[in-house]
Amino acid sequence: MILGLFKLLYLYWLLSCGFLQEYKCITGKRIDFFHSTKPQPHQFTILVRSIPVSAGSSVSESVERFFMEYHPSTYLSHMVVHRSSKLQSLIKDAKKLYKRITHLQSEPNQPQYRHVGFFRHRVDLVDHYGKKLEDIEENMRLERSEVSLATQEVRAAFVSFKSRYGAAVAFHMKQSINPTEWVTELAPEPNDVYWPFFSSSFMRRWLSKIVVIVACILLTILFLIPVLVVQGLTNLNQLEIWFPFLKSILTITFVSQVITGYLPSLILQLFLKIVPPIMEFLSSIQGYICHSDIEKSACNKVLWFTIWNIFFATVSIFLDPKHIPAKLASAVPAQASFFIAYVVTSGWTSTSSELFRIIPLIWSLIRKPFTCCSDEEFEVPSIPYHRDIPRILFFGLLGITYFFLAPLILPFLLVYLCLAYIIYRNQFLNVYAPKYETAGKFWPIVHNSMIFSLILMQAIAIGLFTLKKLPLASTLIFPLPVLTLLFNEYCRKRFLPNFIAYPAEVLIKRDREDRYDPKMAEFYDNLVAAYQDPALLPIQFSANSDSLYSPLISAAQPYLI
Amino acid sequence: MILGLFKLLYLYWLLSCGFLQEYKCITGKRIDFFHSTKPQPHQFTILVRSIPVSAGSSVSESVERFFMEYHPSTYLSHMVVHRSSKLQSLIKDAKKLYKRITHLQSEPNQPQYRHVGFFRHRVDLVDHYGKKLEDIEENMRLERSEVSLATQEVRAAFVSFKSRYGAAVAFHMKQSINPTEWVTELAPEPNDVYWPFFSSSFMRRWLSKIVVIVACILLTILFLIPVLVVQGLTNLNQLEIWFPFLKSILTITFVSQVITGYLPSLILQLFLKIVPPIMEFLSSIQGYICHSDIEKSACNKVLWFTIWNIFFATVSIFLDPKHIPAKLASAVPAQASFFIAYVVTSGWTSTSSELFRIIPLIWSLIRKPFTCCSDEEFEVPSIPYHRDIPRILFFGLLGITYFFLAPLILPFLLVYLCLAYIIYRNQFLNVYAPKYETAGKFWPIVHNSMIFSLILMQAIAIGLFTLKKLPLASTLIFPLPVLTLLFNEYCRKRFLPNFIAYPAEVLIKRDREDRYDPKMAEFYDNLVAAYQDPALLPIQFSANSDSLYSPLISAAQPYLI
Questions:
Q1: A7 has pLDDT over 80
Q2: Which residues form the CSC1/OSCA1-like 7TM region domain (chains A, B) (predicted)?
Q3: pTM above 0.90, yes or no
Q4: CB distance B175–A506 less than 8 Å?
């Protein structure tokens, strides 16, 4: 029987590693995707931060001088980032007001007047809001001209090059003797840029990163409190001790089944719902420049948070590095029924609710009577990767760790995965619109999580054999985690580099293809302005008070003027 | 008193970090050095390994095609590496024979004849060796023409560029879609290349690295055996139990003093003498391409070996991560007297013996009567960094960890450091000739070792306060290791990149300076052949048998033909 288990484990390992060769396929797809796209501004652009400015010159001049000096043949143009948070909030206010006005005008049976002020005189609301909007617009104009000044420049700039290879060379090379100056990174897509937070100094970004890491660790530790409560709920006796008055109710079979089976994971679920937004917020103040990086970082944070707080805390593992395998081996099998219930409550329901998007639906139903404008322009939502990827990966972890401890979980997981495949496929094709192209950037997270799951499973197997006093068996399993780590190291060297940046070969080929493309001249013209801060673009809501309908077109796409 | 100790610890930390700002100074010196050197072949060259070869074409053709395709404006030339180990051993034999012949001819009072063969007929030795030498030379010629063939090409090549920046770009960019092909690294100086070991495949190098790491760990663990014996020797009672017949001798005060004080560290010393060569050997099979990298890697290995086997093993710390600080705090102070003796025996004597280079002296005295040629050309030795740097750093570690536990060690260390400064200064200026320019490459090792020492010291302080039941004190010390780690992280980001590769700014400036240098044409001509394998250069020892003296000049500098 032991021998069979061995064969099973080694076979499973081989299969898993074979599956993880998917890395190769995804790398290939990534390269193909790069070859198939039209020229994109972000392929030609890098972001430069921590630009040193000598006294008496502006950031823009510094950038121009530096790149004309060191990259004269490839440098094309640059766009310095400005501090525009105040302007952004003004634009937000103006948009809100504008919506209110259009709403008032479109629905004539709504009250158009209101009593305002100390003397409660009647005021035409459209007129009133129109004036307010004009005030804000005046402020916006003033603020915009102020922001455009050199004094409001952030020491960061998007620098565009004539070729993809030129941009990649500037990105890969350390530019300055002081490596904390002229820090380069690949530019995101223009509409992926996260404008609000553009901390520029190296030290500040570094310190905020440390602060965020500490905050994440604290959050992970403090979160254990509700988890412990939930764990108490899974144990009926404990509950009877805590709430003696519930004794009579708890003896009813149905109630006790609900409490032990579904309630704990539902409560956990509610707590977990707030984690992805918190992690996204933490990632956003970490100094990332684009939504995709923020989501990627949040995805990692949520994943490790989930693994720690659901898996390890539920199986009650605390820091005692020596006995981890043995503890895992005794605690993990005991929690099998909890995790089966978890798959059903969390997995099945979450995918089903994903299909109907229940929470947004309820939210819009609640909000409808209170919002003034019902025909609000509808924005197609984008999928929150940092919410869904960690969940799926966590079920993957459950499947891998429990496949030999409690195979009963597997059919439930299989149902979940089939459901998830069908539903997410539908959602991707018909519901969500991508905010940015990931180009497979999230795959390394999936790979790492799978490797971690495999090693965890092998550690549990070693612990189990040790517990059952089969030292030979645990010795024979021992090469497995080592082999897994070596396999991971190989993948890291073989495939990961292509997920960080494209190689010279690909870039140069693509540049050559474009060389004789007549559209490139136009593309270069657009490239110069692609990374303009949208807040700095002229937007006008109230052309003048008597023709409020006219700027509707511009308001629907205010970013495209 | 506790408060005083705090201030002392924090002040010491500040001072240490201030001292480690030396990083900045050394970075500056490194850049200055780069600016002040003449154009060097290795600045314009990279080494490319794992070159993919399509069927029907040679490595040389592949390299030419690839770099003409992707780096047409900067590519200059290349030199494919050949398998020449057999040729190298032939050259070695030839040199030995040649030395013997010149020795015989220069000393006419030595026996010129010998009885050889079954019939013991007299043979003229010069004639005999001359014929042998001719045979070997004939073999060399055959072998050389064979090695030059495409079939003997290793899939590695030195690729030279027209500018330093061009070489750096090719080094920094991933070249191929498959990151395990066209692997680039900076070329070493031509005379620093380690020719014997040119493993070319990515997988083989990666596996040999893993094997070497495992071997190092094994060596470190197995080495504990002699250390434990030495530890037994430091304890007189233990010795009396083991060897009861020594009881009478051990009661003599002088003998017991010698045994407890000096003998243990002397024995340890003898064992430690063999470690640097072993580590150097292990590093050499790890796939490094130059002596400097091998020595750097060996330096690291020897350093961690020393710290583990002398410091940790002597204070008897074994794997129990939870109680390390407490264990350290109880064990480290107890070993103060051992380490004071260690400083005296190992430190003082090693520097003094360094001055007279006692071991090479004794070795040459022993060897002299047995070697045939006394007027052997004398090679100026180079300093074995991997032997001396770890030793000095270990004394630094002792000084930092014991400065508040047993300050008595400090004057001994001070004497050692003064001695070492004077002696090594003299050795560097007057005795050793550098085999290669380090350009400050060893500094990061020094920095890391200092940071480790600081953290170790702070861990011991925390452990000590915990042992003495002063939880507040240990809490107040707690920020120190965190601050030290942050400081290290800062240095790593701020200074380390300049030790890996020079930034674009520096390279481009240097390239521009050279642009109008009339000597550059000649330099480029030499660059093409700079990385020729010395074994493939024509060397001739015996012009013809009757004029054996004539090639003496060429033999003295056989590499320069």
A1: no
A2: 209-465
A3: no
A4: no
